[in-house]
Write a structure and sequence with these properties.
The chain has 7 helices and 12 strands. It has 221 residues and is α/β, with parallel strands linked by helices. It has a single domain, classed as Spore Coat Polysaccharide Biosynthesis Protein SpsA, Chain A (Alpha-Beta Complex). The chain starts with a strand and ends with a helix.
Length: 221
Amino acid sequence: MKKNAIIVAGGSGIRMGSSIPKQFMLLNEKPLLYYTIKAFLDAYEDLQIILVLPLDYTDMGQEIIDAYFDKSRIRITAGGDTRFQSVKNGLALVEDEAIVFVHDGVRCLVSKELIHRCYEQAVETGTAVPAITSRDSIRVITEEGNEAFDRNKVKLIQTPQTFHSKILLPAFQIDYKDKFTDEATVVEAFGINVSLVEGEEDNIKITRPVDLLIAGQLLKH
């Protein structure tokens, strides 16, 4: 089965207080995107990457590819105003039947084991969404105020969210809705139930300066 990874890296870096998008910030002297791209290229030798970037930063993305990677395995396309549109732009480059990973560009600590786990589940069921159980207590807002909720029944969703192209491509032809926060919500709106796989605590999303410090320490170990 062919393999495509759509790496969505369209963030602005506002919460990071940076003058450049966070995916281009340096972590141990290399851009965050370097680690994300490398994880997928190392996971499977036959995997192709579609890198979705802000239009104004496609040249910077190409510089990273030229400096570190085999250019024949990576294509770049511009993102849209929403994650939904950015993923849809990436899917336009998926030409053959394949297993498609969709991954946040700033989840740069994704492991080969998690990528393999998602692939194997998607081959079996057509869908694979990594998730971890909340370690914090949970409360749900109600009309009367709020109430405790069993945290073991709550899952925190990660990426790579992984699907057979025969599911994901037609799902992204439906009209956009505000509730589409990730690919799983789009696929569910299309009428397909998603399968969860065990995620990883270290598969963090870099959104704040402290996350960059944590990622640096995790990389060292």
